[in-house]
Each structure stands twice: as structure tokens, then as C-alpha cells.
Amino acid sequence: AELDAHVGFFSDPEKLPGLAHFCEHMLFLGTEAFPEENNFETFLSSHGGSSNAFTDDEDTCFFFSCANDALSGGLERFGAFFTGPLFTASATDREVNAINSEHLKNIQDDGFRLRQLQAKRANPAHPCSHFGTGTRATLLERPATMGIDLRSSLVSHFKSFYRAPLMTLCIVGREQPSELATLAGRFFSTVPGAGDYQAASPADKWAMTPPFLQDAFDVQVD
């Protein structure tokens, strides 16, 4: 199964670069229904499965696979990400370090270097200029000096953007489509906003803003 939340690092607050990516990480670390941080991974491992996720500019994608007979249990745990995440204070502090380690790994990667070079040349008024990964400095240290609480901002981000009209869910299994649809309803019908038919896309905010200005590539970047 895969769920795409149609929000990415383009929607990060200016003073909290990396918040969308951080939210991606935090959703794996305990839910109201399954509070143990490693419950999902333990379940998948015991049923021949695995999971992963990634944050892009306008999307955050979560996905998992498992043995056929474990699909219902996997979906139950997966759906809980989006209906009742805990976002505990202890996990919040700890996961910042994981984000920082990921950034340190990424700076050796030419693909990430080129992406950041592009961001430096982008129109500052367009979120293409954002730094999407986040670090301990951008998520915790600098915001703290401005009186910004990371966990409160995380909860606000989730409540604003993790809503059913801004999500796409795909489930693949050996069951008939009608059975898969029943599973989707059972485990995802309580996602916030499930009764709404549409919601404003985050991308509407910058749809009319050019990502690059005319002189963008005349600028030397050190």
C-alpha cells in the first residue's frame, strides 16, 4: 500500500526549514492505537515486509509491503499514522538527530548538492528556494531562539495538511477490488476531513509565482 499526502517541503514555514520531512519521520514513531515506536516495523518484519517514505517538494509518500495474509494488520497500523499519531516529546527531540545525520550524509551526494544549488538560484518568493531536508540547527536550535516550539509546529503542520482530500491511497492485494475498498474504508475513513470532497491545494499559494527570475543564472553561487 502507498499513501501520498499532497504536501511537501514547499509548504515548510520560512522559519522551520525541514518541517515536512521531519513530520514524515515522526509519523513512524508511535500512534494512539499502537503506541510502541517500533510496532509497525516489528509487524512488517515478522510478515516478510518492509516500509519506507520520502518527502518531495509537493508530496510526501509513505509505503509498505508484507505477506498477503498480513495485509489487514499492516493497513490497520499504517492507517493509524494518519488518524492518531502521538508525536511524543521524547521522539521529537531524538528524531531531530536522525534528520541531522541524514543531512550530513546527503551533503556528500551530488544530486542533493545540485538541488541546493538550484534552490540558491531560485526566486526567493517561490518555495523552490527552500531547503527541504532540515538539520538540528534549522529545526531546533534557531527556532528556539525565536520562541518557536518544534512539536507545536509539527502538530499544526499535520492538522493543516494531513487531511483526506489532500491524500491519495493505493492498496494492492490478492483480494477483489471491493474487498480492498472495504479495507480502505475500515482503516482510513476516520482520517481528518474524510467527509470533505475537496480542499485547497497547498500549491495554490505559489501557482502564479515564477520559480526563477530572469537573471537567476547570472548569479554566482559560492
Fraction of residues in H or I helices: 40-55%
- What is the 3D form? globular
Please state roughly what percent of the residues sit in beta strands, choosing from under 5%, 5-15%, 15-25%, 25-35%, 35-45% or over 45%.
Answer: 5-15%
Integer-rounded radius of gyration: 19 Å
Report the order of strands and helices. Answer: EHHEEHHHHHEH
* Class from secondary-structure proportions: alpha+beta
**Low-confidence runs:** none
Helices, by number, come to 8
Q: What's the β-strand tally?
A: 4
End-to-end C-alpha gap: 43 Å
Largest sheet features: 4 strands, antiparallel
What is the average of the pLDDT values?
A: 95
For the biggest β-sheet, the strand order reads 2-3-1-4
Q: Quick summary of this structure?
A:
The chain is of the alpha+beta class and 222 residues long.
Write up what this structure looks like.
With 222 residues, the protein is α+β, with helices and mostly antiparallel strands. The chain is 41% helix and 9% strand. The protein is built from 8 helices and 4 strands, in the order βααββαααααβα. The protein has a 4-stranded antiparallel beta sheet with strand order 2-3-1-4. A hairpin with a 4-residue loop joins strand 2 and strand 3 (60-65). Helix 1 packs across helix 4 (89-106). The protein is globular and about 55 Å long. The termini are far apart. The model has no long low-confidence stretch (mean pLDDT 95).
